[in-house]
Amino acid sequence: SIPVNQVVSVVLAGAIAKHLGTLVGFQHRWPPGVGNVDRLDRLSPGREDDPAGVQLLLRHKARVDTRGADQKTALLHACAIGNIDIIGVLLDAGADCNARDAFQNTALLELSKQGSLDGLTRLLQAKPDVAALDSQQRNALHLACEYAAPVDVIKLLLQKKVSPEQLDHQG
Fold this sequence. Notes:
Order of helices and strands: HEEHHHHHHH
Number of helices: 8
Helix content: 40-55%
Strand order of the largest sheet: 1-2
Oligomer: single chain
């Protein structure tokens, strides 16, 4: 007989995947035919936000800072797609706001590309490293400008002391 919590985990993963588009990269423990979700490391844009589904996964022992493809955490994925509600859920669950992926991106750098003032405001409450640089030596201000972020985002980054004088890898 299959334990009920394993069946619930599989059904839960499927329901959340439906809401988020794809929520893949789970590590499973496999008794025959059934997976037990114990890690969450990839989010993709979907038609609906489902922070409650992510909270439920976290309550069922999904590991908030597990890394997936390119060493991305769920928080890095949520920032890359600009999902403010899920960013909040992950930060409240203790996600590392300074985690870096294989390209040295952080949540701050990803949100700066997105140009999300609300997302940055929420992330900055967690006190991320505002001096973070990606693999090309670009800081949050570089990325915000490169990706045509709104002026309010650039003002916020300057207010938080992100250096306008940082040189990238091209000087």
